[in-house]
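Summarise what follows for lecture notes:
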Amino acid sequence: MTKDPCDHCEEILQPFLDRELTDEEHHVAEVHLEECGYCRKRYKFEASLRRYVRQAWAEGMPPELKEKLSALRTPL
């Protein structure tokens, strides 16, 4: 049974973004992303989410927000 290319793309999306694939795997993923609008949207979303998280981390969190978030924690 042949694996659905979108299922395969879903499995390798994070390693693709992390640049952990072999050259051949990377090429296969790029070709699929060029051809598949759904997977291309998922890729763009994941890439932009990573940029947002890096930016938020670099900017730091104001102490007031940290206190508010700490107050929301529930004990384990």
Summary: Residues 5-72 form one domain. The chain has a mean pLDDT of 87. Residues 2 and 8 are 11 Å apart (CA to CA).
